[in-house]
Structure formats: C-alpha cells, structure tokens
Design goal:
InterPro entries: ATPgrasp_TupA. This protein is of the alpha+beta class. Helices cover 11% and strands 27% of the residues.
Length: 100
C-alpha cells in the first residue's frame, strides 16, 4: 500500500501528471495527463524534448482521449524531470518515473 498526501493546484484541481518511460537509463517517452479530476481528461505522449508523438492513450490501452488543442507547452522543469528519471532508472531495463 502506498499512501500519499493529497496535492492540488491553487484552484483545488488535480495537478497534471507526467509519466516518464525509461529504458536502460534513457527516457524515451513522456505521458502527460491533464484534467484528471474531470470525467474526460486529456493525455498525450511526447518525447524527452517535448515533441508530440501522436500516440493515443486511455487507461493503459490505445484509445482516443479528448485531444489537446492547442498542445500543452513543456513544463519549466522538463530537463530536471528527465535528468532525475534517467538517474533513477540507470540500473534497470525499464522504469516509469512519475511526477506531479
């Protein structure tokens, strides 16, 4: 069991979720999920340089989420997130590192 403190934005909504997929210590893809507290939240895959990959995603299986229009801008902490994720994943063939 994992218990976490509830985190929210200033307006009380859930913050966006960043899931970094690392293979052999290298981040290969980032899943960005927004509006998680709404019934139809949004998700998009990006590469580590925040180039949109155009891969659909929904609850672990390919599907069409409500699309972003326009696409979200890269977070200011993107470089730090990738560096941390790659550091944590160095010793493993696959690791997913999550950030809020």
């Amino acid at each position: 069991m994992i218990i976490e403190k509830f985190l929210s934005t200033k307006d009380g909504s859930l913050p966006p979720d960043y899931k970094l997929y690392c293979f052999n210590g290298k981040c290969k893809a980032i899943l960005y999920i927004a509006d998680r507290d709404k019934r139809e939240h949004k998700a998009a895959f990006f590469d580590p340089s925040w180039n949109y990959l155009g891969l659909p995603y929904k609850e672990g299986k390919p599907a069409q989420y409500e699309q972003f229009n326009p696409l979200p801008v890269a977070p200011g902490s993107l470089t730090t997130m990738v560096t941390v994720a790659e550091g944590l994943s160095q010793e493993f063939p696959f690791v997913r590192v999550d950030f809020l």
